[in-house]
Specification:
Order of helices and strands: HHHEEEEEEEEEEEEH
Distance between the termini: 186 Å
Shape: elongated
Protein name: Cell shape-determining protein MreC
Family: Belongs to the MreC family.
Number of strands: 12
Strand content: 15-25%
Oligomer: single chain
Largest sheet: 6 strands, antiparallel, barrel
Keywords: Cell shape, Membrane, Transmembrane, Transmembrane helix
Strand order of the largest sheet: 1-2-5-4-3-12
Structural class: alpha+beta
Helix content: 25-40%
Length: 368
């Protein structure tokens, strides 16, 4: 089918070819260079550039709007997340600080108890060692505790144990590094005591209650009353004498009974003490301790006297050299021989006073 001339003229521009792409690029490049040269050398394009900058600024703001919106939303969510994390961190730190504060309060109380313990150890004459309570007997019918000192630390069976307030009990079982202590309030434990006010002797027995002791076989007419302090009497040679044991709380007199009912409260904090003292008693008798103390004082006095007896001898008045004097074994100044006072020196060194008597010089300087 053949097209008419009019149709051919209508269709022809659709398929007509213009300048090539390279030519267009070259023309645009030359135009851009020309504009740059003109803008750099002349001020003709300044108004045009200012107007274009306003238009381009609006386009920049519009094109940058999604990015800025995203950043704002991300910053809001990021700030909230950071605040939540920081809040959790502060809560954790506050909890830790509260725990440390509680620990500090416990350490303060522990320091006070240790100071009391050290002060109490200064009141006794025996050697003591601090131990820590690490366990308790779960049996409700026994009163026993476990301490962190054992046979390797020198602990022995029957060793007295006390705290800052008084006597607690004695060691009844030994392990290499731990030991079990039977408390005073155990129902199988008894201790000889005496009233500190008048020396009345009695036996304090445990009741199984950590807050109560009972005195057995106390005569109804005995001089004992509420508030009396009971101390260890030292009978039985298990507990040293003079340690506080309990305070009398109640005395009941029954006319029909020969013995009074006496109840006492232990002075030691049996159910609250954490640190205890192990007492290493001195095995010497009082006479031996007194004799040893007297010997020590005598030795110290001799040492001081020997230091005072060391000044040099005075030179003789006639210019002669004295014979060297030999001190006695007791190092007393009175026993040191004196040189001759005449112009002739002694022929032999002077002998100590403990030896045979030395001949006295005559007034003329000769010996008899």
């Amino acid at each position: 089918m053949r097209l008419s001339a009019r149709e051919e003229r209508t269709i022809k521009p659709l398929f007509s070819k213009g300048p090539s792409l390279g030519v267009r690029l070259l023309v645009l490049g030359v135009l851009a260079i020309a504009l740059m040269v003109v803008d750099s050398r002349l001020d003709l394009l300044k108004p045009v550039r200012s107007q274009l900058s306003l238009v381009l600024m609006e386009s920049y703001w519009i094109t940058d709007l999604p990015g800025r919106t995203w950043q704002a939303v991300a910053s809001q969510f990021g700030s909230r997340t950071e605040l939540i994390a920081e809040n959790e961190k502060l809560k954790t730190e506050a909890l830790l600080l509260q725990g440390r504060l509680q620990k500090l309060a416990a350490l303060t109380e522990q320091n006070v108890r240790l100071r009391e313990l050290l002060n109490s150890s200064a009141l006794v004459n025996e050697k003591v060692e601090v131990a820590e309570l690490i366990g308790m007997d779960p049996n409700p019918f026994t009163q026993r505790i476990l301490i962190n000192k054992g046979e390797r630390d020198g602990v022995f069976l029957g060793q007295p144990v006390l705290d800052a307030r008084g006597l607690m009990g004695q060691v009844v079982e030994l392990m290499p590094y731990t030991a079990r202590v039977l408390l005073l309030t155990d129902s199988t434990h008894s201790i000889p005591v005496q009233v500190n006010r008048n020396g009345l002797r009695a036996i304090a027995s445990g009741t199984g209650n950590p807050e109560r002791l009972e005195l057995r076989h106390v005569a109804d007419t005995a001089d004992i009353k509420e508030g009396d302090l009971l101390v260890s009497s030292g009978l039985g040679q298990r507990f040293p004498a003079g340690y506080p044991v309990a305070t009398v709380k109640e005395v009941i007199h029954d006319p029909g009974q020969p013995f009074a009912i006496v109840r006492a409260v232990p002075t030691a904090a049996l159910n609250r003490s954490r640190y205890v003292l192990l007492v290493f008693s001195d095995a010497r008798t009082p006479e031996q301790r007194a004799a040893d103390a007297a010997q020590a004082e005598e030795a110290a006095a001799r040492a001081q006297q020997g230091q005072a007896a060391q000044p040099t001898q005075p030179a003789p008045t006639n210019g002669s050299h004295p014979a060297p004097a030999k001190p006695a074994e007791t190092a007393k100044p009175a026993e040191v021989a004196k040189p001759a006072t005449t112009g002739r020196p002694a022929a032999h060194p002077a002998q100590p006073a403990t030896a045979h008597p030395a001949a006295r010089p005559s007034p003329t300087g000769e010996r008899h």
